[in-house]
Amino acid sequence: MPRNPRKHNFNQFSDQEKDKLKNVKKELAEAQKKEPESLREHLQAFNDGVMAIIITIIVLEIQPALHEIHYQQFISNIAVFLITFFIVADFWYDLHLSFSYYIFKPSKAIAILDFFFLADLSLLPVMTKWIMAENSSFAVANFGIVFLIAKILEYLIQYFGAKNTARYSQIMRIIISRSFIRKMTVTLFLNVVLIILSLFNAKLAMILYLIVPVISFLFPVKRNKIM
Known about the structure:
Distance between the termini: 63 Å
Strand content: under 5%
Order of helices and strands: HHHHHHH
InterPro entries: TMEM175-like (IPR010617)
GO molecular function, one term: proton channel activity
Transmembrane segments: 74-93, 138-160, 180-198, 204-221
Structural class: mainly alpha
Organism: Lactobacillus crispatus
Coiled coil: 11-41
């Protein structure tokens, strides 16, 4: 039977070459063990960079008041910018706490959720520009939808990250699941109310969108409960 030329007979290699192959396999195995920790660092850096760019883009949308007649619009645009700024800052702070306290070895699923989260958050400059150009109920409602999607994705990142860290504790997994369901239910209810409110009173809805991240930042959830 003819020998398959694609198959290598490793017995033909010298002991030195075999040792090199073992070292390469060992290095690959070590790299695979460290890959989740490396992914964690890269995700944190990626989050920081994207959110910094988002805030920069938003502030560049503010047009200076060239005449006194435009000054009121100028102040209004600054107010809209500050609302979006605090929302993005609150998202950044929540993710910072998540990666600091319990997302130590993020999986590929968490990375994908993080990418979708950042993609959705990147729409905030568009929504903010829309509100600056036309402070209508429809514009604020769409702003609220983008905010709601980002919040859901943030909770999913926290949920899968915490569940992976506590995978050996059934009690902790139950606590995490109940906390996730409770937070998701409250978030969906409040944001649906805000979106409906924005259709009737856009200015009040924008004020409430500012209050939410400020309260979240000043009174954060205790992290000794994992989530």
